[in-house]
Automatic annotation (TrEMBL):
Keyword annotations: Oxidoreductase
SUPFAM superfamilies attached to this UniProt entry: NAD(P)-binding Rossmann-fold domains
GO molecular function annotation: 3-oxoacyl-[acyl-carrier-protein] reductase (NADPH) activity
Xref: CDD domains: SDR_c
Species this chain originates from: Saccharothrix longispora
Record-annotated Ketoreductase domain positions: 8-192
Protein name: 3-oxoacyl-[acyl-carrier protein] reductase
Alphabetized SMART domains for the sequence: PKS_KR
EC number(s) from the headed UniProt entry: 1.1.1.100
């Protein structure tokens, strides 16, 4: 397969496991050098780095708390210091707080909005300062930005809906510079946080047209397309990779 992100430098936030790890590995297989951030899972992050390097690409894991106001900008600067540039930013790190609104107070609000909205804004701001024509920003959202099927997701849905606005606004702003900005909204994906054999799996599968959970690799394939040459004329798009959950 031809490399589609050949010799580009990518930053994937929250890249130690799940969708983030799959994205980091896919971008590397498609020709990119990859920096990934992690908060706690140092061993898992090191394993992703080792796999990327075994495949012949360069990689680096950077510890960063996306809830920290300065972490996103610092991560971008670390990429530029190490590799001299940044071509692709994937805003994947996320915070999930689920429950009745009466149980979600200011602290939970601040946490979710800081990680899911502020961090992508600041990372995109920092990356855009270094990107040239052909730069790519891909935000990882959620199907709940379009359809909230179960109760308790009001705060999370709010944050992912805000990310849609950021995506479309930045696409318009950065388009004249040849930089694309898109959002991928996964549906139910089989990860350790939401396993395909979990207690709600049957109910969730019932909402999808395909009747199954997706895999992290299926999300990563769409991200890599948007990050590469194939995504050159796609910007401001919100793409559902959800098995027809919102169809």
């Amino acid at each position: 397969m031809d490399d589609i992100v050949d010799n580009r430098v990518a930053l994937v936030t929250g890249g130690s496991r799940g969708i983030g790890a799959a994205v980091a590995l896919r971008l590397a297989r498609d020709g990119a050098d990859v920096v990934l951030t992690y908060q706690h899972a140092a061993e898992a992050a090191s394993a992703v780095v080792a796999e990327i390097e075994a495949g012949g690409r360069r990689a680096l894991a950077v510890r960063a708390d996306s809830g920290d106001r300065d972490a996103a900008t610092a991560a971008v600067e670390r990429v530029v210091d190490r590799f001299g540039r940044i071509d692709v930013l994937v805003n994947n790190a996320g915070a999930l707080r689920v429950g009745p609104i009466g149980e979600l107070g200011p602290a939970e609000f601040e946490e979710v909005v800081a990680v899911n909205v502020r961090a992508p804004f600041l990372a995109s701001r920092a990356a855009a300062a270094h990107m040239t024509a052909g730069g790519r920003i891909v935000n990882i959202g959620s199907n709940v930005a379009e359809r909230v099927t179960f109760p308790g997701f009001s705060l999370y849905a709010l944050s992912k809906s805000a990310l849609v606005g950021l995506t479309r606004g930045l696409a318009r702003e950065l388009g004249p510079r040849g930089i694309t900005v898109n959002q991928v909204n996964p549906g139910p994906v089989d990860t350790d946080m939401n396993p395909a054999d979990g207690p709600l799996a049957d109910a969730i599968n019932g909402f999808t047209a395909l009747g199954r959970f997706g895999t992290p690799d299926e999300i990563a394939a769409t991200v890599s397309h948007l990050a590469g040459d194939g995504g050159a004329y796609v910007t401001g798009a919100v793409i559902a990779v959800d098995g027809g959950f919102n169809g």
